[in-house]
User: Fold PrdX deacylase domain-containing protein 1 from Hippocampus comes.
Amino acid sequence: MSEELRAELEKRLESLNIQTTCVDHPPVFTVEAMMPHLQDVSGAVSKNLFLKDKKKKTLWLVSTRHDRQVNLNELAKKLSVGSGNLRFADEATMLDKLKVGQGCATALALLFDKDCSVTLVLDRDLLEGGHNMVYFHPMTNSATMGIRPQDLLRFLKDTGHEPVLEDFE
Assistant:
């Protein structure tokens, strides 16, 4: 299933004339497990959190640099959600909205959020930090795809997702 979704993603990127690089590796479920496989890449590696707002049931995909700490209470305040109201969304919701399961959350999966019900919160550093490439899973946790920051932004806009930029320093 994930290979078909990856192929669909690659086809969409190709149609936008977006060049990527890819590192295949064993399936990983944490950033810590992934990093040894990415020692030779140049750029910023992302970590992604799929969250929901306790009250409104709003869905959020948070993509930050892998070495950032994400304080959910502080983030909730920045997003005007209210402290203590951000939670991890369940895997069934992630599969329904993004077509990926545990360990595979990625901003690239927004391709499958057809009704744009997921809001992307993007670490400002991924776009403006001077990185030649930023890295995300391509619908599977057995690979990591590099994409230029300006191409990531173009891809997101093409899917109808305008990211909310936040500082996670």
Q: What stands out?
A: The first strand starts at residue 20 and ends at 24.
